[in-house]
Every structure is written in C-alpha cells, then in structure tokens.
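INFO worker-7 received task bundle
INFO bundle size: 2
INFO processing item 0
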Amino acid sequence: MKVVVLGAGALGVYFGGRLIEAGHDVTFLVRRNRAERIHNNGLEIHSTRGNYVVAQPKVVVDVSEIDRVDLVFFSVKGYHLQGAIPTLIELAKKGAYILPVLNGVEHFSVIEKALRPFIEQGVTKEHPVLGGLSFIIATLDEKGYVHHTSKQHKLVYGAFHHSQQEFCNKLQTLLTKVNIESENSEDVLLALWEKYMFITAFSSVTTAANLPIGMIRRYAETKQVGIDVLQEMRQLGNKYNVPLDENTC
C-alpha cells in the first residue's frame, strides 16, 4: 500500500514513521521549508513506545511528483484545511482514499463538498473520505523531531460507506504489524463525536477557569460546569442524528 502523509507535523511524522518502521511505502508531501529541514536533520521519533530514526525519508514538495497513492494520511492543522484542498483533490484523482485525523467533525463535509464535482465526473472514488481520529500527545522540537511523551498512540479509522469497508479491512491487516494501537471502528462517526464532545467541553472549561483538568474535577462547581457543557455537546450530536447518550457524559 502506497501512503502519502500530507501534514508532516508531530502527528504525521509519528504515524508515518511507524509505518516506515514496519516496512511500508510512505511519502511525506510537505512545504519547501519543511523539506529543507528534513533534508538537513532527517526525521527522528523519540517515544515512550520506542525510538526510531527514519534513515532515508521519501519527501516531495509537489503533488505532481507522486505517481500513485492508495491512502492519504491527512494531518494538517484545521486552519490549513482550505489551503490543502487543491492537493487533496489531486491525490484523490490519483486513486487515493483520504484519512483525515484532524480534531472536530466539520472538515469531513468540507472535503466531501470540494471533491463532489470530481466524484460526479468519475475521476475519483465514489466515496473517497474515510473517518479517522487519533489519541496521542506529541510535539516537534526545533529540529523537527517528534517527541511522544504519553503511552497512548492510538489511530481509529472506519468506513462511512459500505463500499469503503474492504479497504478498511486491508488497512486493519496492514496496521497489525505497526507499532501503534489501531482500531477499525464499526461506528467511526460515533467515535468522532465522542472525542469532539470531550475536547470541546474540557478545552473550554479549562481555558475559562484557567485550571488543569485535575483541578476542574476536584471541585463540585467546576466539575458541574464541565458536565453541563458535555450535555450541550451531546444534545448537539443528537441533532445530527449521532446516538450519544447519557452514559457518554
């Protein structure tokens, strides 16, 4: 399977690097300044789950340099989404499934809307966008090396449409020998909303209170605010027909 990582930040380098470590064909599609940094420093992963040096990473700066691709691991920041759309379109036209792992849920409809004309023309797959999310704490240092500081390094993915299931099953087989935790979710939309609920609720409450999660949970008043925001997010998800229930909160 040919994988292109679009967005070689901490997330993209970590998961892309783990795929390379397991012997898979991965290309990093990056901006020119990031390519120069990789050329000068290489890529390294410093992790609680084992260090790894990517000896000779395949790096390109233009989508035209990519001949064929099966999967795009799409991990840019949300504010770079619109700028990445033209590249995603070109990769989809080369036969790729797209696996976004951005936080939130709205980016899926944005990508689908951008691809719709090309889907209708039959130049991309009929359903090219998979569901995806990740759980990991990782940053880049000044050399562009990844520092993974938690035990968790989980990738969750799944089919939005039954036609994608065969590919997700192939991906599941591929990932069994990769040094990450992975899950082929039977309800990836629900998984996305569950994460969206918690990051929205706790990021807002910790910011407003200027307190860490532990302190928020310690006091009944701040803990209740967190629960109230979770309930609002649950109700929002229900409006979108996502079956979030009281137990989720």
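INFO item 0 finished
INFO processing item 1
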Amino acid sequence: MLDLPQLHALHAVHTQGSVRAAARTLHLTTSAVSQRLARLERELGKPMLERTGRGVRLTEAALVLVAHADRILAAVAEAEAAVEEKAGVVLGGVSVAAFSTAARALLPPALELVRARHPGLRVGLGELEPHEALPLVAGAELDLAIVQDWPDAPLELPGGLARAGLLDDVVDVVVPDDHRLGAVATLAELGGESWVSWPEGTGCRDWLRRVVGGADVVHSAGEHHTQLALVARGLGIAMMPRLGRGLLPGGVRVVELEPVSHRHVYAVWRVESARRPAIRAVLEAIDLAALELTG
C-alpha cells in the first residue's frame, strides 16, 4: 500500500535530483529518505532509482509513479484546504522556504507575528533558492515560498501556483573606503572591476553577469558577512541588495546605482491552498513584515 511519505520522498528526489538534496528539502536525514524509497520498492516490486556515475536517476517505473504522485499530492492538499476552510480555525502546520536574505530579514518578524496571533499554528522555515523551492510548492511538498526575480528575467511559475508581490529590493554596490567610485555610479562605470559575488547558479550571480558584461568574479561566498569582509580588505567590490544586508563593517561604503536597480520579491503558493486559514494567516504576517521593512 502506497503512503504519502513515500510519494513525497520520490517526488522530492525527482525535483531535487538526488537523495541528499531531497532529504535537505524535506528536513529529513538521507537515511530516512532512503528507507522510504526502499519501502516503496518493496511495495511495488520494482526499483525506483538506478545509479548514474556518482548520482542516481529515477527508473521508468518511478517516472510513471511520479506523474501520478503530482496529481495525488495536489488532491490531498486540496482536500486538506477544504477541511481547514470549513473549520475556519488557524491550526496545523505550514512549511515555508525562502532565499537566504529573505529568510534572514523578512521571515523572522513574520513568524514572530504568527506565533503571537496564532499559537496553535506551527510554521517551519527552510532556506532554498527559488529554482529549488518552486517545484516543491507545485508538488505540495512545501506550502509557501518566498522567491525573487529581476526585471530583465521575470520568474515563470509552474501551473497551479499563485503569487503576490511583497517588495522591490534595491541593489547597491559595496566598495572599499578608498575606492575610485563616488557616492553614485552607473553600470557603465563598473567595468574592469574585480568582483565578490554569490556562488554559481544563484539569482544574484546570474544578474551581475547580465548587467555588467564580462564581470570578473574573483571570490564567491554565500553569506553577506563573508562578502563584506573580502570587500573591506580591498579584494573586490560587490553588488549587494539591501534586504538582509545588515550593518556594514568598517572599511567599506555604499555606492548607489543610477538609475536604481532592484529585484522583485514575491510570495508563492498553490492556488487551492489560499482556502486554508493557516496559509492566509502566514501570508498576512509576511505581507505586514514586508511593509514594515519598506517603511
């Protein structure tokens, strides 16, 4: 007999590409995901994964099951939403994922507000990039995602998802105190610089390369504090959104861009989930936190 945890595990491996990544997104150990897949294989009498060098891929039988799992998980989520809407009570659990700076600056005050208003509601937060989070929301493995896109590269949502804008996050350039740039600069003035940026595959790194042709990224770091420490030592300059940036250390200063550059920040959820009082409560708290940040 198939069960939902097994289907969630298989769907997560399909969307994330590995057992390790699936375990991270489901907040489980790698062993727990492997055990769920092993039980699924015993139930069906067919292997679900096959080795491909250092990785794994789904077998033909697993791909057939995943196609059905999408519909099954969506139907279960819709049924849960209907029950909660009927009860009209803000209870249960809501899972949220957000990219790193939103997880740092936007979600803590929102979750604090949820706890104060709805003590019976459990909200769990995970840190994921938009390309990791969206398939999980579409597959009903996450309830909400906070994602970002850029004016020149709008985000395409999978079918069945809705979104609402939260804020426009302005981007500045951070440079060493003695840098040649003045208080305001244009993108054209940034050529020839050495850059400190995010790791490959992140939205901010991709955007930097689009707007600063031939950007020479010398150092990569996934944390603002690390990037700022490198800039302070004169090892490069950084393009840094204001959301989650925090206080600047000594040795660096901000250069504003002219014209202003920004990224859009959104909340994304399944259309049918909007019926759940719990989802509406979390969305309202996130929206209020965004309003507080933008003044």
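INFO item 1 finished
INFO post-check item 1: Residues 170-262 form a domain with the D-Maltodextrin-Binding Protein; domain 2 fold (CATH 3.40.190.10).
INFO post-check item 1: Residues 7 and 79 are 17 Å apart (CA to CA).
INFO worker-7 idle
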